[in-house]
Every structure is written in structure tokens, then in C-alpha cells.
Amino acid sequence: MEARRTGGRRGASSQKILRSLDRFLMSELKPGQPLSREIVERWIESLSHLSPSTRINRISVLKQFCRYQSLFDPRTCIVCNVYMPCRVRPVPHIFSKGDMRSILATAKKLGPPGSFRPVVVATLIGVLYATGLRIGEALNLNLGDIDLKRRVIEVREGKFGKARYVPLSRSTVGHLAAYMRQRCQAGFETAPCAPVFPNVAGRRQGHPGFVTVFLQIIRGLGLRGPVGQPGPRVHDLRHTFAVHRLLAWYRHGDNLQAKLPLLSTYLGHSTLSGTEIYLHATAQLLESAGRRFHAHFAVPRIAITNGHDKD
């Protein structure tokens, strides 16, 4: 774990996986015994009850650990990609403007009466929709990270520890300015290190609690099925932002492939491949819109029978 921190890997998730792997190896390995293929396969078998994405993350950590360990013991098993399960990515849901109006209106009606909670939840949802920030990035924002005069948000430590500036539209700045005034009037701390989105106790809004509230809202609106069924997620607000941005460029006649690097930088992606998924979603959306337009507005073709028009 110290070696990973030295190399810039500070994710709590990786550290947790390494601790779990350490406990497993301590129970399996005998002194002087190499990390063999049999032990590797037992570790992977112990993960069979987890989702494909979780297994991929854990096997990736094991793969890196084995590669590192092989520098000291060449008998160490090198984990190959055949052990990796297939990742099944959920199809992103693109929220319409009507969906967002309903979601925000419902969020503003959350209880209890007189609580600042509805304002926080509605503003947080609005920021995610208007900026494409990751939920963790938004929740980690401090007051000092938002510069309304320069119309920019500073994401100090995004995914993979990358920092970036996120420009804001004038309308988003207006909503945030109103929120900041309400936040101050509600008596929350105003120091630069204070969280932008506090919970009822004044501490930072938690990720699980917000996700639970968001899912309750969209279930109540019929946008997602009952508990246990897949459907729209908080992360789809980020997909919605990206697709809407691409659609706006498309309508302006811009070259989408040429614009991808700009969107990639804005979203904080480490490679363009992470952004291309939004281009794919945009193409699907345009094709679907084209089919709907044709079904509703296309002039029906007139069938010709024996040289006469058929009604």
C-alpha cells in the first residue's frame, strides 16, 4: 500500500482491496510458498458472488500485486485477462428537460417543513445536471472552490487525483449565488473550507444518503421501477450533460469528433475513450429521434396497384 501511495495511488478502495487480499494470503500461504495459480484461482472464486464491475476492480488489484511480487519471486503467478469477467455497462438514461423540471420541483418539496434539506438536494441535483460533475466531486466541494465572479468551479482532486477548472454558465452562476445567500441565512458555516452542500448537522452531505433520496424522487415520478430493478442513476445526470452538450454542437454544425477533446478535458477524463461512450449515446439518441419524427410526421407513401392510386 505504501508503494501505491508513493506512485500516486491513494484511492481508499484499492487500499481496502489490498487489506482484504492480505488477510486472504495470510490464511492461505505458508512461509516460503509462492503465490501460485491455485491460490490465485481460490481468491477469484471467493469473489464469485460479487458484481462483474466489483470483481474486475478486485482482480485488477490482484493482477498488479502479482506483477509487483514477481520482481522478488519469479514463481509468482501472473494473472492474465482470461480471469476477467465481462463488464456489462448499464445503458445510460438521458433525462429530458421535462424530467429535470419534475425532479427539481419534487426535490424542493422534500421534508421536513422548514428544513434547508430541500434547497440543498435541489441545488445539488441542478449542479450535477448543469456541470456534468461526478457526484463525489460535487459533494467534496468547499465554498472556496467556487468563484462566482470568474464563473468557475475548481475541482481540486477528481478521479485519479486530477484537478481541473469547470466553467459555469450565467444561469448556473445565478442559481448558485441565490443558493449561497440562502445557505448563509440558514446559519451554516461560511469559511472557505466549509462544505458547499451540508447535511442537517452542518457536516458534508453524504453520498449514500443523497443517492437514496434521488432514487426515491425518480421512483415517485415513475422514472425508475421498484427497489431491486435497474433504471436511471445519479451518474446519468453526467451522461445527460455530456449528450446534451454534444447535441448542441451537432445542431450548430460542429464536428463532434473534433469537439471530443474539449468535452474530455471538461469532464476530467484521462483518455478520449472515456468520452467516446457519450458520442455513441448521442448517435443512438439521434437515430431514435429520427425514427420518432418519421413515424409521426413523414408523408405516407401511396401504394400503386395496376397503374392506379390506391387509397
Radius of gyration: 25 Å
Q: Domains counted in the coordinates: how many?
A: 2
Distance between the termini: 76 Å
Beta-strand share of residues: under 5%
The CATH class name of the largest domain reads Mainly Alpha
Task: Give the integer mean of the pLDDT values.
Answer: 84
Q: Which shape, going by the Cα principal axes?
A: globular
Q: Provide the CATH superfamily of the largest domain.
A: Intergrase catalytic core
Judged by helices, strands and strand pairing, the structural class is mainly alpha
Helix content: 40-55%
CATH architectural arrangement of the largest domain: Orthogonal Bundle
What does this structure look like?
The chain has 311 residues and is mainly α. It has two domains: 2-83, DNA polymerase, domain 1; 91-311, Orthogonal Bundle (hpI Integrase, Chain A). The chain has helices spanning 2-6, 12-28, 37-45, 52-69, 97-107, 117-131, 135-139, 170-185, 207-220, 236-251, 256-267, 273-297, and strands at residues 146-147, 152-155, 164-167, 304-305, 308-309. Mean pLDDT is 84; it is low at 3-10.
Task: Outline the fold blueprint.
Layout: H1 2-6, H2 12-28, H3 37-45, H4 52-69, H5 97-107, H6 117-131, H7 135-139, E1 146-147, E2 152-155, E3 164-167, H8 170-185, H9 207-220, H10 236-251, H11 256-267, H12 273-297, E4 304-305, E5 308-309
Helix pairs in contact: 2-4, 5-6, 6-8, 6-10, 10-11, 10-12, 11-12
